[in-house]
Amino acid sequence: MICLTVAGLVGLAAAGTTAAAVEPGIDVSRFNADISWAAVAGDGITFAFVQASRGSGDDCAVKPQRCGRDGLYNANYEAAREAGIRVGAYHRAFAGGVGRRGITTDAVAEARVFIKSVRELHEGDLLPALDVETPFAGLRPAQLRRWVRIWLARVKRGLGERAIIYTNRSSWGATGDTTEFALAGHPLWVAHWGVSSPLVPAVNWAGKSWSVWQWTSDGEVAGIDGRVDRDRLRGGFGPLTVD
Question: Of 59, 80, 155, 225, which one has the fewest beta carbons inside 10 Å?
Fold first, then answer.
């Protein structure tokens, strides 16, 4: 059950929204194991980002044997939708590659595994999302921007929608804190835990601020064993929804 503290309400008001405009959500992956989505919906959750893939295989820096396609994605997607929860697919990136060709190859491989896992988007789905966070395999800012640009372009071509970008202020700094993707119309899903209002990278995302805020990794929701990431979505589902 979502509970906005006084500090949280003040932070949301300062960010230009109200409690009534905020939708409560979660994001999950195979690491959350089996989920009772009916119970999740009964606890007031209205949306969920579900991991479809991580990296492209053994390139992952974290738990490489569990990267590539998320084996629970299809079951999570179907059960969440059946429970009346809006669903968006996300990809946990592990950007890498050596030189322009290697960076291109790596970004294309990760885009392909994501597209293959998602297959297609349906009306009412949330836009797909790219999780951009460290580590970045030593890529320089221009190289990381190239990687992100290629992944986004491939997914736009493959799934027909412009992706949301998930990141945090420190990770996005590795891109040179670029406003390129904000100006290109990619909404921001920002991670900042334990605060009343998040710090937003890229000059407040080129003045557009955040659309989704992951406000904790230590949440509790009925139907999920253990801790779960909690999110807030503002501005209504419309701008983030597949037509």
Answer: 225
pLDDT of 1 over the 90 cut:
no
Q: Which residue range(s) make up the domain with 116?
A: 22-231
pLDDT in tens, 42-63: 999 999 999 999 998 777 877 7
Q: At which residue do the structure tokens 């993707």 appear?
A: 181
* 9 is a domain residue: no
**For 12, how many CA atoms within 13 A lie in the half-sphere containing its CB?**
22
The answer to whether residue 202 is domain-embedded is: yes
140-182 confidence digits (pLDDT tens): 999 999 999 999 999 999 999 999 999 999 999 999 999 999 9
State phi, psi for 112 to the nearest 5 degrees.
-65, -45
Q: Does some domain include residue 238?
A: no
Domain count, the chain: 1
Task: Give the Cα separation of 210 and 202 in Å (integer).
Answer: 11
| Within-domain flag for 116 | yes
